[in-house]
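To whoever is on call:

I kicked off a structure prediction for a single chain this morning and the downstream step that reads the tokens threw a length-mismatch warning. I double-checked the sequence; it's 427 residues and nothing unusual in it as far as I can see. Pasting both halves so you can look.
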Amino acid sequence: MATAATSATPATSLGHEIRFFLATPRNMRVLLLTNFLFAFALPVTDLFVLAYVMRNSQDPRLVMEYQMALFTGIPLAFLANGYLLRLFPIRFLYGFGMLLTTASMAYLMSLHRLGAGGVAATGLIMGAAMGVYWANRDFLALLATDDANRNYYYALETFFGTLCGLVVPAAVGWFIAGTETYGWLGGDRNHAYVALTGVVFVLACGATAMVCQGRFVNPDPVHFLHVRLDPLWRRVLAMSFFRGVGHGFGTTAPTILVMRLMGGKEGLLGAMQTGGTLVMIVGIYLVGRTAKPQHRLGILLAGLGLCIAGAAGNAFFFSAIGVIVYFVLGTLGRPLLDNAVTPVQVRAMELLAAREKRTPFAYLFNNEFGLYAGRLAGGLLFIVAATLSEEVALRYVLLAIPVMQLGMAYFCRKVMRGCGEMEGAKA
């Protein structure tokens, strides 16, 4: 592996940065360029597909059903991918995951009427696409990097994702809104969604062609299905359950609220997503710059506090003002929550994998089902409440979710203590 690039002096010019990048291993460059290209498509698949379902159904329950079907597809695809890697090159599976997102969008656009069956099928296809995509993306990152260049890889990948998260939602929202404002595509917003599906297809084809330029070797087959779980890992799964309870609402609730309480303006949805990303970048940078491992529980509580405050603001105002309060505070709170919990869980994975002589992938796979159980519970709670009263679901269930997630803090403390005891025993 070429590691000379990692010891280079700090960049003094754009040309130096380009030379730095070109000095990294070929597979790493290929993967970064692939991820950068497809990063332009991810905001469309994550945000505006939900807006399409809401616009054409006016039923928040269908939006949540789509999201639950998507969450169901992810662990199933993750499981299938573990076996498909024994049959197909990993770069082909990665490309297949990207192309399958387009198939899901195309199927959704072909439905003449959005019903529970069609929306669920679309969600399952998109979940399968996302499961295959992320499973192979994470594997390829491990294959293409080593400890000497991994920090650079993730820093550049995060930069690409953040850049697209800033630009794409605003641009796409403006484009969709422009179909009515300027009469593009016959003045029909649905035509704009069809055009976006074509753009995602082109990006997926380009990214697939790019990743196929890499010389990736499939990982050795590993046994990743285990039913005997350490008590420490059960506490990690409990954390994942409470984390999953709020996962679906992080992308679903803002879309429903904007479409319901702010006049269904996709342009505003894109602008709020872009503004929220700016707030998130500043907040996460400040926390990451100053925080120590012992601060993680405090960061988690701060993130939950912001989420609760945002949901309380939405419940109190239940208007455009409440949506803005919910969006801004939630956009800052959720990343704080994730950035506190993830290092704790990863440390538990490392310690348990070393003690139990298992592959870390086994814990990653197992953790998906903890997340899924929480997502399912949270989604069902929302659907039941929305069946009784849409207002109750959008006002009070959204407040109940982050309050329930306080259970994460309880288990986080226990996991941190358990990890400390294991590290002390090793020392």
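Update from on-call: the warning came from a stale cache, not from the record. Cleared it. Sanity check on the structure: The chain has two domains: 25-213, 222-420.
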